[in-house]
Amino acid sequence: MELTPADRALLAALEAGLPLVPRPFAALGEQLGLAEHEVLSRLAALRAAGVVNRAGLVVRHRELGYRANAMVVLDLPDAELEAAGRRLAREPAVSLCYARPRRPPLWPYNLFFMVHGPERLATLRVVHAILMRTGLETVPRAVLFSRRRFVQRAARYGTPAPELRQAAA
Amino acid sequence: MQETAPTLAPAPFEPTPLERALLDRFQRELPLVPRPYAAMAEAVGASEAEVIEALARLQAAGVLARVGVTVAPNRAGASTLAAMAVPKGRLDEVAAFVSSFAEVNHNYEREHRFNLWFVVTAPNRARVERVLASIEARTGLAVLDLPLERPFKLDLGFPLRWS
Prior knowledge:
Distance between the termini of chain B: 14 Å
Shape of chain A: elongated
Largest interface: A-B, 88 and 93 residues
CATH superfamily of the largest domain in chain A: Lrp/AsnC effector binding domain/regulation of amino acid metabolism (RAM) domain
Distance between the termini of chain A: 36 Å
Strand content of chain B: 15-25%
Strand order of the largest sheet of chain A: 3-4-2-5
Number of helices of chain A: 5
CATH topology of the largest domain in chain A: Alpha-Beta Plaits
Radius of gyration of chain B: 20 Å
Structural class of chain B: alpha+beta
Oligomer: heterodimer
Number of helices of chain B: 5
Radius of gyration of chain A: 20 Å
Helix content of chain B: 25-40%
Structural class of chain A: alpha+beta
């Protein structure tokens, strides 16, 4: 699906979130010069096309006590990547799973998955249980827990500014 | 677990039953109707005004980032996951510089030699590369560029376990 300028403007307007007023899509439309029903039908189309993969409450897990965020990285033979990724994706505790390129010699890992938990030890146990169930317990790996969060905000897709914008440059 | 050191982060936010119900049910299914908060209210047995108030409280507490949408990677632009091995003494300075780019939407310290991890998102790949090049030039440190090759599961929210 090709995004129209109006779609990009809509996604950009949504970066800050939907306003907490009774008719938020009408309020959004007012900013964009679109009618409420146009905003809703564009969003439904973006959703149906898979451009928008989630619409709803975007939660900050740390504030709810999910402080131990483990990013697990595996160095899998390329031929096994697809099957392993599919098995991991079926694990309910895995929130994200994807393949990314290796950068040898610095970075040998090609499969990533994410597990959130209330604290470190419990999260590590979940990670180990997942690796056992998926038959990946002997694959070379690293577990990277998050320590500090510097930034978590909506991605910006719609901003047309041609130059890099740097708040503190 | 009660005797842990007082230097730990404060106790997590305790949501009300209505707030929990909203967090449990609407991470994925925002009703795309003219009055979405009224639709949510009906589903959880509250009024529209109560739902709006509850969402505003969650937002004020920092639990709710926003009511919004997430865009599938590389569908509306380009993005990458980037990592840097930053010497300990320079981490604050380098993290602050990385965070200063509007194109950086996640930036975390992780426990590894590669200790700074961030996501760069822009309308196109060329701009992603310019951001990475600016960071390398300014910091003198190499940036690992790890663009998504194949998603198996994308962040669709997850069930919260309430204690």
